[in-house]
């Protein structure tokens, strides 16, 4: 049995969970998240806990059991604490400028600045010109927005210039060797 799937999810105070057929809705102080439960997996509420159960030990149900539990747990954590991804910009003249909490301008060595606007439920913070924090309640969307920003100028292997996750290690290559 899935060790992740059989662990109960505790519902903190201030969080409202609604389960209708295959649809789970979680409301909390940071917003509302919804998700359809795939396959034959069931989610049921037992007091202040949520239990994710599978009907049998078929391969597909075993695979989905832990996944659904993690997705529902991330919904609960997201509406209470939220998620954040930090990016750092490395390079001479590379910087980020905040335009409110829902848009940023990035100078990444191109002939123009690149504007990035946040989708619903996502906010940006620029604590320093070379640092960006992407925040939101939905872990999946926060990670996707951070990946899209990183994709604008991936770190290159020779000088390491570009946008990278905070703490990400970039493998460096040796440059040209002179005679």
Can you walk through the features of this model?
20% of the residues lie in helices and 37% in strands. With 179 residues, the protein is an alpha+beta fold. Strands 11-12-7-13 form a four-stranded antiparallel sheet, with helices on one face. A three-stranded antiparallel sheet has the order 1-6-5, covered by helices on one side. 23% of the residues are buried.
Outline, from the CA principal axes?
Answer: elongated
Order of helices and strands: EEEEEEHEEEEEEHE
Report the strand count.
13
Q: Which structural class fits the helix and strand makeup? A: alpha+beta
Strand content: 35-45%
- Name the strands of the widest sheet in spatial order: 11-12-7-13
What is the residue-mean pLDDT, rounded to a whole number?
Answer: 93
- What is the makeup of the main sheet? 4 strands, antiparallel
Q: N- to C-terminal separation? A: 62 Å
* Number of discrete helical segments: 2
Describe this structure in a few short sentences:
The protein is α+β, with helices and mostly antiparallel strands and about 180 residues long. The chain contains two helices and 13 strands.
């Amino acid at each position: 049995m899935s060790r992740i799937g059989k662990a109960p999810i505790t519902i903190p105070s201030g969080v409202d969970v609604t389960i209708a057929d295959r649809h789970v809705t979680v409301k909390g102080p940071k917003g509302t998240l919804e998700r359809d439960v795939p396959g034959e997996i069931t989610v049921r509420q037992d007091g202040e806990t949520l239990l994710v159960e599978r009907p049998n030990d078929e391969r597909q149900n075993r695979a989905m059991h832990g996944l659904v539990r993690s997705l529902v747990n991330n919904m609960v954590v997201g509406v209470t604490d939220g998620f954040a991804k930090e990016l750092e910009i490395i390079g001479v003249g590379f910087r980020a400028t905040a335009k409110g909490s829902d848009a940023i301008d990035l100078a990444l060595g191109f002939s123009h600045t690149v504007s990035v606007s946040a989708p619903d439920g996502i906010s940006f913070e620029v604590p320093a010109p070379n640092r960006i924090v992407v925040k939101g309640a939905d872990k999946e969307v926060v990670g996707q927005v951070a990946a899209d920003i990183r994709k604008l100028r991936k770190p290159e292997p020779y000088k390491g210039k570009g946008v990278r996750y905070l703490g990400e290690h970039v493998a460096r290559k040796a440059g040209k060797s002179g005679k």
